[in-house]
Amino acid sequence: MRDRPIGVFDSGVGGLTVFKALEERLPGENLVYFGDTAHVPYGSKSPKAVARYSVAVARFLARRGIKALVVACNTSSALALPQIRQAVAVPVIGVIAPGARAAAEASPSGRIGIIGTEATIASGAYTRELSRRKPGLRVMAKACPLFVPLIEEGWWSDDVAWLVARRYLKDFHGSGIDTLILGCTHYPLLKPVLRRVLGAKVLLIDSAEETARETERHLAGLGRLRSGRGVRRDFYVSDGPDRFLGLARRFLGSGVKRVRLEQIDA
Ligand code: DGL
Q1: Which atom of ligand 1 is nearest to the CA of 75?
Q2: Ligand 1, from 186, 187, 189, 210: best to mutate by most atoms within 8 Å of Cβ?
Q3: Centre of ligand 1 from the C-alpha of residue 73, in Å
Q4: What is the whole-number distance in angstroms between the Cα of residue 200 and the centre of ligand 1?
Q5: Which fold has domain 6-94+209-261?
Q6: Residue ranges of the alpha helices (H) in 26-173?
Q7: Is 3.40.50.1860 the CATH number for 96-206?
Q8: What are the domain boundaries of the chain?
Q9: pLDDT (0 to 100) of residue 255
Q10: Prediction pTM value
Q11: Running along the chain, 266 residues long, what does each successive block of 10 average in pLDDT?
């Protein structure tokens, strides 16, 4: 059981931010990643469609013999966690609860901003999770739908990204937030741009590290942690493997050797 991989999925490259955190925290683990690039972006789809795609990907990864599944997508975590848990027989870890926990603990004033996809923000999942953890927090949320296509295009450090960020984040001016939750796993790639817009004072919270820690806790509790040497990394996408390979190498380095195409039945 220990040698089985941890499955990680997202609609595209965003989940690689969580993949990287898992690699850093759990260097002895085998990992298998799925980017549902045929259906990206999830954030503008209906809850039904997101659940259908997510369940299909989860079932595919379950067939690869995973020992746990990390839903490295806020949109799926917000809209489809119960359906995913029902579809697979392994522990399922989402990214919303770890991100909310980190933000609630980190914010000195309790004024927290959230940015995410349209679907994540409309679901209210972060706001609910934050008030469950710490009643009385003042929360302001904003959907930023153009960020994901910009990142999938590889433009995360481009001036265009800065202009778009400036426009979206204008709404937070004067709000007094001291903490901003990056409520989409694509957004950590925009950290330098977001910093440039917001300045150094606002804390940027991404759930990647916290999710990796949660995964470690979970596997340790089950006695399923692996610390051996010689790890496997497998990457699958539902469309455009070459394109994904280029982006994954830019983000994770040349260690990404191969990306396989796998059409999922959604
Ligand atoms: N990276 C995903 C998220 O965290 C999905 C973005 C999208 O496909 O719209 O929400």
Answers
A1: 10
A2: 186
A3: 5
A4: 25
A5: Rossmann fold (3.40.50)
A6: 47-63, 74-87, 96-106, 118-123, 125-133, 147-152, 159-169
A7: yes
A8: 6-94+209-261, 96-206
A9: 87
A10: 0.95
A11: 95 96 96 97 96 98 98 98 97 96 96 97 97 94 96 93 97 94 95 95 94 96 90 96 95 93 89
Residue 247 has a CB neighbour count (10 Å cut-off) of 23
Q: What is the pLDDT of residues 67-80, one digit of tens each?
A: 999 999 999 999 99
Query: Among 9, 76, 95, 148, which residue has the most ligand 1 atoms within 8 Å of its CB, making it the best to mutate?
Result: 148
Q: Indicate which residue's Cα is closest to atom 2 of ligand 1.
A: 73
Give per-residue pLDDT as tens, 192-214.
Answer: 999 999 999 999 999 999 999 99
The CA distance from 45 to 247, in Å, is 23
* Same topology between domain 6-94+209-261 and domain 96-206: yes
Distance between CA atoms of 101 and 126, rounded to whole angstroms? 10
Phi, psi of 112 (to 5 degrees): -125, 130
Tell me which residues have their CB closer than 6 angstroms to ligand 1: 10-12, 14, 40-43, 73-75, 117, 120, 148, 184-186
